[in-house]
Amino acid sequence: MLPADLPDPGAHTGPGAHDGRATRWQSHREERRRELIKSARKAVHALGSDASMEDIAAASGTSKSVFYRYFGDKAGLQQAVGEVVLSQMQRRIQEAAEGAQTPREGLLAMVSAYLQMAETSPHVYTFVTRHAYGDPEAGTGANAGAGALGHFFAAISDMIARPMRGYLGAGPGRETVIGYWPNAAIGLVRNAGEQWLASPASPTKPDQAGMARQITDWLCLGIAPELRATEPAP
User: Fold this and answer.
1) Domain count, the chain
2) Where is this region: Disordered (predicted)?
3) Is the pLDDT of residue 133 over 50?
């Protein structure tokens, strides 16, 4: 259970006391916010991506008014949880890119990191990537309708683009092509990955490693191998 919400630091009683209290108060608020994000993430993982603020608060051992105080509305909470997920994903993708020896190996590692994150907690993935339109708890502020994390996939696209620029190098026209490619690539990764995630288990459904290899092949080779395989022999 989370601790009770923190009280106001109150008035200072001497020179320098206000600054000290303000610093401690800010530190307490930041720690409390981290606890609430961690607790909300666990609640969504267990309850599902449609969990209400009241459900999340109850699972966290506090009241929904506390979540509103720290995050403004549900979209604000989605944003905060999404930033934590994105930060963790950034580290994993960066490690994958740094350990790769070839562009294709790097892409495979990055796609694998993405699919692993989504498969490990599909409820949290949906919570931080879907739009909040029509949700009465989303509010009407800057976060409303922005999706769980408006820049989530833009940030992932940039993560993919940076190592690819290093692999492919500079040259006439290359920067333009590289500039278009990441957004197209992440669209393929996201749509294929989400369709795979939503598909029921079956003997024909690839496992995570197999799906990562298939998506990487599409990114590197397109569907040319499949087309050649279906062409009649001369």
Assistant:
1) 1
2) 1-30
3) no
* Contact between residue 195 and residue 134 where contact means Cβ atoms under 8 Å apart: no
Question: Does 64 map to a domain?
Answer: no
Q: What is the pTM of this model?
A: 0.71
Whether the CB-CB separation of 81 and 37 falls below 8 Å is answered with yes
Using alpha carbons, select from 163, 83, 82, 161 the residue that is nearest to residue 124: 82
Tell me whether residue 55 is in a domain. Answer: no
Q: Using CA atoms, how far apart are residues 219 and 206, in angstroms rounded to an integer?
A: 17
Half-sphere CA count of 112, side-chain side, radius 13 A: 16
Q: Residue 103: give its domain's CATH number.
A: 1.10.357
Domain membership of residue 132 (yes or no) is yes
Query: What is the C-alpha separation between 207 and 122, in angstroms, rounded?
Result: 15
pLDDT at 144: 43
- Which ranges of 61-139 does DSSP label H, i.e. alpha helix? 64-71, 74-99, 103-120, 122-129
Inform me whether the pLDDT recorded for 58 exceeds 60: yes
CA angle (161 as vertex; 197, 83 as ends), nearest 5: 55
**14 in a structural domain:** no
- Tokens representing 45 are 């993982």
Residue 215 has pLDDT above 70, yes or no: yes
Cβ atoms of 148 and 127 closer than 8 Å: yes
Q: How many Cβ atoms from other residues are within 10 Å of residue 169's Cβ?
A: 8
Please give the structure tokens belonging to residue 162: 């940076």
pLDDT tens for residues 94-121? 787 777 788 788 888 888 988 988 899 9
